[in-house]
Amino acid sequence: MLRRLIAAALVGLVLLVAASARLFVWPPSDRAIRADAVVALAGAPDQHRAAVALALAHAGYAPLVVLSTGGTHLRCPPQLDGIPVRCFRPDPVDTRGEAEAIAQLAAELHWRRIIVVPVRTQTTRARLLIGRCTPIPLVMVPAGAPAGAVPGQVVYEWGALAKALVLKPHC
Fold first, then answer.
1. Which among 29, 87, 108, 123 could bridge 76 via Cys, Cβ 3.0 to 4.6 Å?
2. In terms of DSSP bridges, do strands 37-40 and 79-80 run parallel, antiparallel, or are they unpaired?
3. pTM here?
């Protein structure tokens, strides 16, 4: 009986690690293609999402950078390195609030496709949430995260994904 219990626990652990790797460490992501805007989700400064969004705009993938200011009260610059910038503060201040705000901007500005820059571990959940709120095609181009932060982010993402799937299944 004890051997079966240990074997089952090991199988469960292997499945958890494999699912975590696929969903959060190496999530499905896309190659950048031309879009109407590059949208950088909010997050810690060391996750450099805004820099990735700006680099994509400079490379010609989109004419506009849109930044979520999240919980900060940063002033939105009208331009960054010659690229027009638009900012928004989501309500609620989380990825779900960002999804709702992105959908509203997409409808107002008649976007046909957007590039979204989440942090890598957030990519699966961001695709789910934003996809629930807008029918336009999403191109997910994640920014990296410091390696030391990934384990904590994976634990957080499991909880946040469960919440998105079970407690808040709609936009």
1. 87
2. unpaired
3. 0.92
